[in-house]
């Protein structure tokens, strides 16, 4: 990057906050939604990449972990 050149990065907006979804409404049984927040290897995507706020990211992580325990989602890729 050239010296003195400032780049502007648009701040990511939490999708759940825009849709006014409460953290309690994020359910572990909604596997299709949760798959968007995991990599193909099965890791949970961090909030700096996903753009979620802290409250919703905690709810997403808890839901993914519950779905893994109930065997709705894999812990790792094959």
TrEMBL record:
Any one GO biological process: translation
**What's the domain of life for this entry?**
Bacteria
Q: Which SUPFAM superfamilies match?
A: Ribosomal protein S18 (SSF46911)
Report keywords, A-Z: Ribonucleoprotein, Ribosomal protein, RNA-binding, rRNA-binding
Keyword Metal-binding belongs to the record: no
Gene Ontology cellular component terms for the protein in this record: cytosolic small ribosomal subunit
Family annotation (Gene3D superfamilies): Ribosomal protein S18
Matching entries from PROSITE patterns are given as: RIBOSOMAL_S18 (PS00057)
Q: Which InterPro entries match?
A: Ribosomal_bS18, Ribosomal_bS18_CS, Ribosomal_bS18_sf
GO molecular function terms listed in the Swiss-Prot or TrEMBL record: small ribosomal subunit rRNA binding; structural constituent of ribosome
Q: How does it assemble?
A: Part of the 30S ribosomal subunit. Forms a tight heterodimer with protein bS6.
Assigned protein family: Belongs to the bacterial ribosomal protein bS18 family.
Q: What does this protein do?
A: Binds as a heterodimer with protein bS6 to the central domain of the 16S rRNA, where it helps stabilize the platform of the 30S subunit.
Question: What's the protein name?
Answer: Small ribosomal subunit protein bS18
């Amino acid at each position: 990057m050239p010296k003195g050149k400032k780049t502007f990065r648009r701040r990511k907006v939490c999708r759940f906050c825009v849709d006014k979804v409460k953290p309690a409404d994020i359910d572990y049984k909604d596997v299709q939604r949760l798959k968007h927040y995991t990599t193909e290897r099965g890791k949970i995507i961090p909030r700096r990449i996903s753009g979620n706020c802290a409250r919703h990211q905690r709810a997403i992580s808890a839901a993914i972990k519950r779905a893994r325990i109930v065997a709705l989602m894999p812990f790792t890729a094959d």
